[in-house]
Amino acid sequence: MNNIIRMWNQNRKKIIIIAAIVVFCLVIIQILNKLAGEEIANGKVNEQVVKEEKNLPTKSIITGEKVKEETTKTNVDIIEKFAEKCNKGNIKEAYSLLTNECKETLFQTEEAFTNNYYNIIFSENRTIKIENYKNSKTTNTYLVTFYEDVLSSGKIDQTNTYKDYITVEKDTGKININSLISCKEINKKNEDDKIEINVLKQEIYKDYEIYKFEVKNNTENTVILDTRTTSKTMYITDNQNIKYTAYAHELPKSTYEMPKYTSKTFSIKFNKKYNSADETQKVTFSDVIKNYEQYQEQNEEQEKIKIDIKL
């Protein structure tokens, strides 16, 4: 005991200094631990925010328009669900997420969906990136990029990607794929001098529109709907009075020839890119020849009919 007292008396200052240093170090360690804990917590919060922002593409990359987070989350969940089912090979369940219109227009059977979409994109597992493209009152369209799943393939190939424009219908919660935005029955017609043109259906895609027609020639002569001598005689017009011409060359000229007392059904593509603000108002055939035989024999300008069909 005397030895301890003697050591204390001889080294009092040193012991006090060492004790103070130890206490100081312990306090610093506690402060650093607290700060580190807060930083980790904030990091997790920031990571969660980034993750949420990534998964919720509320802002259109084209127009800047914003969609409600709740709506966006619902739409993202649907698209991710579709990709997940495809990755797992659940073709039947993936097919069930398509709208009836998409099935009827593009993939009338599961086999058609498998051969013309699933086998092309999902030949291997995919991860996806979803971006808000454009929006309308009834639909939200997203640019979806399908990347190869690096964890599955063990390699990185930036060229092995696919892009699709997938549209979610607000009413049904179903999706249109393969760049189909929407389609609907029209059944609007017009007749001039016993030549009747009926617009049966409209299909809107990201880069063009397709219209299905039924044409009846109730005359005693062969009628031609377009001589194809110029490229601007078949067109659609939107609500801004802008005209979009047909891809007339994609169909054989015989498609537009109508023998007497006959009817035909065919589809024509028009070069109108999707814009939810610009709706098509009418379809026009401005180069209709009433007597094609006479037109060929005389090789001169014949009387033409212009037929407008308001949609």
Can you walk through the features of this model?
With 311 residues, this protein is α+β, with helices and mostly antiparallel strands. It has two domains: 69-178, Nuclear Transport Factor 2, Chain: A, CATH 3.10.450.100; 182-310, Immunoglobulin-like, CATH 2.60.40. The chain contains seven helices and 14 strands. It has helices at 2-55, 69-87, 91-96, 100-105, 110-121, 150-153, 292-298; strands at residues 126-135, 139-148, 162-169, 175-176, 180-192, 195-205, 209-217, 223-224, 234-238, 243-245, 257-258, 262-270, 280-289, 304-310. The strands form four sheets. The protein has a four-stranded antiparallel beta sheet with strand order 1-2-3-4. Strands 5-6-7-12 form a four-stranded antiparallel beta sheet. A hairpin with a 5-residue loop joins strand 3 (162-169) and strand 4 (175-176). The longest helix is centred in the N-terminal third of the chain and has 54 residues, at 2-55. The radius of gyration is 34 Å and the shape is elongated. The termini are far apart.
Keywords:
single chain; alpha+beta; Nuclear Transport Factor 2, Chain: A
Strand/helix succession: HHHHHEEHEEEEEEEEEEEHE
What integer is the average pLDDT? 87
- Kindly state the number of beta strands: 14
Cα end-to-end separation = 109 Å
Please name the CATH topology of the largest domain.
Answer: Immunoglobulin-like
How many structural domains? 2
In the CATH hierarchy, the architecture of the largest domain is Sandwich
Largest sheet: 4 strands, antiparallel
Low-confidence stretches: 40-53
Number of helices: 7
